[in-house]
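Subject: DNA polymerase III subunit epsilon

B.,
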Amino acid sequence: MSDTARGRVRVIDLETGGNGPDDVCEIGWQDVVLGDDGAWHVTDDRGARLVNPGRPMSPDTIAVHHILDAHVADLPFWKAVAPSVLKPEGRIDALAAHRASFEQRYCTPRVTGGLPWICTWKCALRIWPDLPRFSNQMLRYHRMPEGLVHEIGLPAHRAMPDAYVTAHHLRDMLNTVPIEQLLAWSALPGLLPRVPAGPERGRSWDRLSDEVLGEFARSRDVDIRFTAKTELERRRQDRQESAPEPATEPAQKTLL
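Prediction pasted inline below.
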């Protein structure tokens, strides 16, 4: 399927060594393309490259992705690998990742050419708010996206399989709302459908008192703070709309 005609988003996933600012040890990608039929599709354009992180990797992160120092010792560094993946030939409208803020720490505007980002985690909160959890793999098994080949999406916590899974969520999002809406949601903090922790855990925000919402609106967590303020603003607007119109006196009083 051509990636030059109508639209193309490249999904990115990174694995890192856990010890420094440029410690990427693998980058994976999967393209989602707008076809001639007007629908978005996951293509066969996918892949992964191992990267030398420039230092020994921590055992904690090796235990997640199972990439050994010996696998990457003789490979190019991140700065040499990134541009060919993040700025491929042909049209590309955006980059995407699940919890994209992590990838954006490494995929800076200098190496992406300033492409906008779609965060599939933030968009999933908006499109599928009734799901119980929103990790990449939990979305995979709660949603069971059509066409996702189970084996290509394994092993989890490797860059290409994770990008492949994310791309199926993104495809369904793009076929539900315009790309401009996904980009707008991605530029904001996450709008959480339920309280994530504490005594109110699991409750929807519209069930909380104004006082409790006010406490959440001062949270250090940007997503909790944003969600609480959004609910408070919704209530303020509802009260304004439901308030009775003030009585007005006639321009000239009637003499009795």
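Strands lie at 8-16, 24-34, 40-50, 94-97, 117-119.

T.
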